[in-house]
Amino acid sequence: MSDLVTKSKHWESLFYRAPIPSAIVLEEDGVCIKVNKAMENWLDISGGRANSKLTLFDIMANPNPTEFNLIHIVQQLKTTEEMSTSRRLQFVNQRGVVSTADMWISLVEEEEGCVIVQFVPSPSKSPVRKVERLESEEMERELLEYKSLFKYNPLGVASLDLNGNLIRVNEGQCALTGHTQEELLTGHFSPLIDPDSLQKTHYHFAQAAKGIPQEYNIKMLHKSGHTFEAHVINVPIIMDGRVVGVYGITADTTESTVYLKQIENLGKQLELILNTVKDAIFGVDSEGRILYLNKAGAKLLSMNEDVVIGSRLADYLIQFNENYYPYDKNQMPIHRAILSNEGHTCVQEAVFGKEDGSTFIAEYQVHSIIDQDKKGSVVVLRDLTSMNEIMKAKDEAERAEKEKSEFLSIMSHEIRTPMNAIMGMASLLVDTNLNEEQLSYAEIILSSSDSLIQTLNNILNLSKLETSRVEVQQSSFNFHDVLDEVTNLFSVQARNKGITLTKECDTRIPYNMIGDEPKIRQILINLISNGVKFTESGEVLIRAEAVHIPGRKRVLLMVQVQDTGIGIPRHKERLLFQSFSQLDPDISRNYGGTGLGLAITKRLVELMGGSISVQSTEGKGSTFQFLLELEHI
User: Are strands 214-221 and 156-160 parallel, antiparallel or unpaired?
Assistant: First the structure.
């Protein structure tokens, strides 16, 4: 292919050495941006004058923009799909000599917004014999060069008529196909093409026959019967402004195709190697956008490769400073190292966090790379948290959690005893003969004590759940009755807030099921209580459905508590079921609570083999759903 490129460059110079005076002219204003040697001789202008802003009107003997409108002529050519048109005009050279010439104007595919203008002088008796002789000699030289390019070209070169019949072929075409010249010149090119590539070849040949050069890859047939990969260039043959045939220039690319496949296989092998590396590897551009990541990188981000490609690495990682505060995404040292791209390797150790809230300690390396003026980086993250450190931290956390639960359990029991006495005495005090003010004080003591007892009960229940000291007690119960009773508990509170509390209980739910009725009751109380508490207007809807499991006396119970309350920001949903967790200090101040209800609810559901989830939109409300598989009688 390098020979073809060299020859093509040679032919570009033929414009300048063509015997016919020629110029490349801008359509818009007629400025000659290129003129050949014959044009310079004809107009008797030097190279400097030729390179200045010479226009067609400058060389016309009687310029008349009204009669000669180049833009209008070009539009007519494009409309009629003709290749060229001519005008006979008088022209004047730099010495003032006037001559008549046919000016041919042709469209130029390669030069957008330009036309080629060629001047064919009419016969005259002016003494320019020396120039004519030189032009004739130059034409002969160019013809010899053309014949040499055709005959000795190692590539396959053929000329074809507009029907696709081969008219002339060189030795390269014979060597390429295995046929003799006599065999090739007997008919159409189709027998030389693999059937799978025949339709494609016909299409490109037809385009070239319309005057549009083509370049494409196909499979061809050798005389021996084997196929080979070929790269083909079709060039229209244009004479007097008309396409009269097509040149076909063909190169055997079988070897280069094999090389490309080998390179592709090497790429796959490299990807396989990178995917076996445990370190997370990212290829990023100069802006930090991910161009490539291995499997360890996708696992580190907990994201699918297709999702993160094109996104910034900084959008999926959180880097913490030495005080364990997160950096702003654009100020993270790892991100700044990527953007700096100073051509060296940066190695640092840091604490990182992921979108799911987990953290890890890693050593990261940022290697700056420059490839053909394109800058980027390779980022490698190595997790430094060994398995022993993980197990040690886990054991310490479990031990601390157990100690905390035991302490809470003991303290709850210690506080409950005096609180029960306070509540008992307050109840007796309420029943005595008190004035209105004293009765109000006693009722406040009773109400506050009851609230405190509920909190202590929650703490005690949570500690039991965390230390696995709670067992599931199976007994027969009527879910319909349980749901009615729990709903009625909150009807007065809902009515006082001006919200609607409704329930929809599927009739397919069996009336007698086996399960831990007290725990199911507590789950319902916690969810409905939250719904009523955080809803200021609208409604709280409790919906219960059941799906019978075929072939078994069991049902899948699904309960949803849907409210139109304050809703939950999506990025804080993961905090909902954590112990002592409040989403926002303002929520705690406005609505109260300890942040234990949902944590206990989740543990109770999972203790009975179920699952719980939430869907929420901030400002519009939330839907909590739990699933339990229960036996029915």
Answer: unpaired
